[in-house]
Design goal:
two-stranded antiparallel ribbon, single chain, 3 domains, about 0% strand, rod-shaped, 17 helices, mainly alpha
Amino acid sequence: MADASQPKGTGFVNLSRILDANKNNKLGEVVGNTLKGRAEGVRSNLGAVTNEFEQKRQAGALDTGANRDAREQALNKIMGGDTAVADQTQKQFDTFRTGKYTGPMGLDETKSDILATKANQLQGDVRGLNTVSGRGALLRQTVGTPQYTQGQEKLDNQLLGQNQQGFAQARQQAQGIAKNVQEQRMAAQQVGQTEAAKARQFGQDTVGQLQSNTGNIVSDLEGRAKVANTQRPEIFKALIDAINAGDITPEQAKLLGVQEGVQTYGANINPNIKMSNIEANRSTVANEQDKARLEALAKLSGLNGIEAIDATQVGAYNPLDINQQGIQAEINQRKQRYNDLLKKKFLSVPLGTRDGNDPSADATYIDTRYSDPQIHNQERAIAKLPNESNEQWLDRILSYGTKDGYAESQYTDLTKAGTDPRLKYLQNLFNNTYQKTLK
């Protein structure tokens, strides 16, 4: 209950409270602390908004050390021959090629707008300490109540104007705070623009590296094609010389479509071999490894397939135009002619007291003629068995001096052991014709 001895409306009631509050400059301290608290709140929230921006920037940055390492490792792996592309790697490169920075372009607009408003209001309030109206507004915010009268405010205003040392620190903390907010906003915008530019460059570099690696492979293929075209005459001559010498390599046998060591029966297969008039190109000289590397690079480039070469022509280059069917036909025809000739000549030569063409009679004669088991068995080998075809018989005779220990020296010894004209004929036939094989 109010004291009846004190007049109402004169400010004396409030004067006691104000004087007490202002003792040792408490009023200035209260106002100063309020201003300091507001300044600290703006700075703290500005730091939080800035940290939030930084976290999102890092998450949305494209040009990072991790991404550069991933790109380099993937490309080195492919160029090194490991052409398997994982789904994760493909997704990474899909992102790399976009060249897009997905982070923020500045501080959160809503939050930074609020901070800028608060900072400007704070600085306005601090400047207002130098004016009656400014101090009045600040007093209403800090110590004022719904019952705060104009008289009370006027007295407090006068006291506050005379004792401002209590909020000297608040003035210092509030100084430039609006500028700080604006500078942080501008700095974040610059960082966002920088990240966007770096991302665009990263995307361009990624595309450029994919194209460069593809170009390196293509350049290598074009170089190989040029060399292949230069070497065609040499390859052709080397094969013909090898055939004429009867000494071909496994690779040359594969080109001819024959097995290494096949007997040609003196067949002339050279007309079936020509130098190709189709020049090599980067597609036809490519191998499966080249194709796989180009496919992997195309996948990381976002392409549906290889564009650098024609994948259907990989490995199609052949420096020679070889008619393998013609070669085999020539050998078979030659073999048949010798088969018929050998049969005719061989059976037309008499063998001592031969009983017609009965092979058993030949065997009996041989059994009684030679006592040497080795010679006996070898001579048996040239007798045609009743169930053999002419071709089977000829093949067995042709192998007489070349397989299973029937070396030429043994064959020569056999012919020296007797005077059988058939053996002499067979020796001459073997030496002059059937020794011509592709070894």
